Amino acid sequence: MKKIKPLPYILGLVSALAVLGFSLYAFCPAINIHNPGLWVLTIVTVSVFIVVVRLAKGEKDFGWAVYKEKIGSKGRTRTRRKFNFAIKYYIAPIILLVIFIFYGLMSSTLMSATKHSGILKVTESDFSKDIAESVGTESIALMDTASARMLGDREIGALSDVVSQFNVSYDYTQIDYNGKPVKVSALEYAGFFKWMNNRQNGIKGYVTVDPVSMSASFVECDGMKFVPSACFSEDALRHIRMEYPTLMLDNLHFEIDETGKPYYVASVIEKTIVLFGGETVSGCVVLDPISGEIVKYDVKDIPRWIDVVFHGDLICRQYNWHGMFRNGYWNSIFAKKDCKQVTTYYTSDEDTNDETPVSDYGYVAKDGDIWIYTGVTSVNGDSSNIGFLLANERTGESRYYTIAGADEKSAMTAAEGEVQEKGYQASFPSLINIEGHPTYIMVLKDSGGLVKLYATVNVEQYNIVTTATTQAECIKKYKDAMGIEAEDVKAEVKETTITIASVKYIDIDGNTYIYLIDSGNNIFKAKASTNENMLLLNAGDKVKITYTDNIIKTCERVA
Is the pTM of the predicted complex or chain greater than 0.85? Predict the structure, then answer.
């Protein structure tokens, strides 16, 4: 019986445990069967064990072998080379790899399309009822992350004792803070040695950015020690992982509660289809970066001050499953019947220069929560929306509104075209309700990222564009363009039925107005661009109208 030498197996076990231990500590993967990363790590660890054992034994598992081959009957030979691979020793990792690939395929949308389509529950709703009319400007969040970063960096740059040791994190979070939209970002250590120098006191503050006043503030707090930019056991994710080793976590980000106390929040991910498919959120964990305390919440128990649990990228991905796969996977490839998706644009990958589709979305502050909104379009690639999706980032509640109109990129182009001689760039817009009219509102920035103008664009008629230097002025000009009276002088809305005696069209300041004169010589008017159905009216028609003073609000032909 051949004697087994233990040394190769000891070396293999030590090497495998070293790889496993380093990977678990460095990358903090969830020890969960639904985590694909754990499967990859297991396959790599088993393979390392086998390779080290074989090398320690001096056995060559693969390579070119040279051997002599006999030719003919006279004893002549020739040298041949053959590639050898000792596959029998790698049965275990190969079996694991096959199982991993099999369950990955079964978890994919190809095999489970209709199950993926049912993950996001979407209800159809009424836009004018759900989105309150925007009578003020304090709840409109227009600032994009790039502008927030610029303002935050400028604020910290003025604090010499802070800027030398810390940076402002690039990861700004849109939250609702005491009823107002605010972007927040924590400071982070500017490298390993800065962490070593400051770890005893921790990070002393964070930055808030007001998207309405376009201003940033530095807020001091007690030292935050458990943060993503810290090292070793003070790294925020590693600290959470030590207490919850099996939770699959995503979207670790910074938030503050209603008193201004800082926290880090991470979504708890659950895979609901086979092993790896159907990603959704089952709750969140909240880390106090000052004390290190961690609290886990189920979705139904999440405190109101937490704003981002179902993050926008996940919601957009889930809606695309909902819109594309309701009639099966192959329908989404060939017939594409009733297929729709959130609006996307293409961006260039810096490494490959390939065009990559990216979902984009804006934010709406509503009822103390942050909702993302994005347009929904058919898959035929045109530049129009067939509706809008509004989704609560705290609860995951999603609502769909059937509103046909321009998509966000077309509206941005329309706003830029209004001041094309200045070369301003539009930010991604917010969606607001002005007298029942869905309206895009956005900022226009110069090449340095400074906000120069505000712009509004009507969703259903994106040729109606106004710009101004303030939000309030921009909305007032928009109401004027839409024929909407100012709130403080709005008169009573009346209703009557008239018989048209004559119809007149008059241009005023570049806008066409329709004038209806009834049989009693009363005159009513409406803007043609917002009342196109009135263009078909003729003398003798009987119509029911609602009006304020002599301005027509609605007009309906009476049979």
Answer: no
